[in-house]
Amino acid sequence: MKQKTILDYVRCGTDYLESHSVPEARQSAEALLSYVLEKPRWEIYLNGACEINSDASEQFEALLKKRAGRYPLQYLLKTVPFREVMIEVGEGCLIPRPETEILVGKACEKLKKMPGKTAVLDVGTGSGNIAISLAKECSNVSVIATDISMEALRYAKENALINGVRDRIQFIQTDLWQGIEGIRFDMIVANPPYLGRAELNELQPELVFEPVIALDGGYDGIDYFQRIVYGATGFLKVGGCVLFEVGAGQADRVAIELKQNGFQGVEIDVDDTGIKRIVSGVLS
Fold it and tell me: What is the rounded distance in angstroms from the CA atom of residue 102 to the CA atom of residue 106?
């Protein structure tokens, strides 16, 4: 019996995932095969006529079955590219999204205009993608990154080490403000949980595998924004700024919260799809 080639596995994997209604089935099949073979995707097609051994075949098929059950592709691949860094992920930490790259970009723009050393607080750091990117891209920054989840902090610390910025980030397990009393920051940045309860009941299949604590923003999704805005006034320097990533339809409400709590120069920025995604303000 003729052994299957690499391209045969791409085709069969794509068909299998499509039969289970997995979105972007071909991209998933390519990524999983690339992961198994430890080769970049372009080599899959360059060597498409080559056969693969039985161990690789079994590993690929096992990963396909998990993906067919809508297990997140990023958890299977164990890493996610995020701006200039690679972030390790797994169950217990939120998967970094492209929208958050916009948040980091806006934060970097503001930080690079600040003179001297700047202190940043990353609230709810998760995998550490925001804190690590800021430390990597802004040489004048030191970061305190907090999260209530020890498992998320385990990933964050390892990611900081892998990306060479562990000495510039202090990780603290806390729910928002405990453990950082008395510190004043130049910037507070946060991508807090912002799904409302109705949205949580209608999650995409992949999202049920991510930690609900990183998704649940309360009844209407803005609980954490309100808590952070209210508390931030006691932790920001005068003239310091706060930046949020927000969910669709939340930007105007978060902007009002900022204005009502002593913030000026409130700005709203959109993502690549035109959704109001980033809200920022300066403490007066």
Answer: 6
